């Protein structure tokens, strides 16, 4: 073991490899901080530049970009509520509220600390638990995926705010729009109205930007104080040790959730971030603070988000199966350099594997330094007047949306979703349940129908595996808990600071 570690360190310890990690993380943070520019796009664009590099240098550059982009997406999500990825949208729920209170600096630092801690935990899981976690992930078939997604959909209750009904309406709208496109089972078109651009469905980047960023811009323009300053000052105060200590349980749970879900191919970071956020809210003694500026919400979302990064490499390295779209691109880099991920990689090139592990660990340290520098640089956006900030954000939204597919139709989708998001904002309908349902809807439908096809329509297939039964039981328990909570909540007096019913002439009593 020590000989292998020494050989791996000797192979990794070169200036080119260290520079590849540093440059990759910095590029990833910058790309992630630009709305619409995703980590997938950055890794795909960087892939051709790695063809003539040493295999370790090339792969570490791509992994560095991957790591940096996950954290970078939290910066605009917190400062201007413009997440570039679905996972960063979860960070915006509490991060933007903290920024509006002038505590953006604390939110950014907690996001960085949570990201780095989760990244280290995820990398250690990759190093020590790759075989165990990968073998568990292999047990997931369509019934297990369906049960897992059923449980994940119960998250919508945790992010519905004060009205479960409005949250369910939002989730139903998300599920409805997720059905647009070609039916994956029978190949028929649904809700396309003869428009070829809709045959592939709605791309999540235009939907995401339109739903979260544009309503804030429209709402700001509708106000008479457009000429005022933009966001509240970020503040020089960093997150204190008591702040971080309070967030450590949420970071630990989020890291565990991210590792498990990241190791299951096809799940991705968004469900991990929202599930981590929902668990943090459920465990909190003051769940009503979530969505209104709870620092634990930021920590949980970023931990679940970033823990996925290392975990998605587990099935790639151990089984040769990419965990998500980004690792599929990284798998291409392995192939280009004559390496085949999977069990034979550990048999024939174990020294390269250990060298990669060391580079990935270094990436966690580099992420902390690059994140600190990025916070100081990008936080100055709070000093920009609204009259300058919002037009600039709008330009970035249009550019980022167009850059996804080089298609103006995506820009039109973003504008349409912006109007829908603005109506939801005015009607106090939360956007988070919509996004969760929109992301999980296709997986929910696909795995349900595949399971029923495998069993010729029999529901017994969902009870043949202990994994599926476990997640279905957790789903039932979660639904019962939500119903009981809402029944109890109706009998409580309104808390201090809650909005007063305009038809009532009595104020809410203090707690």
Q: Count up the helices.
A: 22
Helix-strand category: mainly alpha
Order of helices and strands: HHHHHHHHHHEEHHHHHHHHHHHH
Tell me the number of strands: 2
Concise description?
With 511 residues, the chain is mainly alpha-helical.
Report what the structure shows.
This protein has one domain (2-489). The chain has 22 helices and 2 strands. It has helices at residues 2-12, 15-32, 39-46, 55-72, 74-79, 86-100, 104-137, 142-153, 155-158, 164-178, 204-221, 241-262, 269-283, 295-311, 313-319, 325-336, 343-348, 350-378, 386-405, 408-426, 432-454, 466-490; strands at residues 181-182, 189-190. A two-stranded antiparallel sheet has the order 1-2. A hairpin with a 6-residue loop joins strand 1 (181-182) and strand 2 (189-190). Helix 6 (86-100) packs antiparallel against helix 14 (295-311). The radius of gyration is 23 Å and the shape is globular.
List keywords for this structure.
single chain; 511 residues; mainly alpha; two-stranded antiparallel ribbon; 22 helices; 1% strand; globular; disordered C terminus
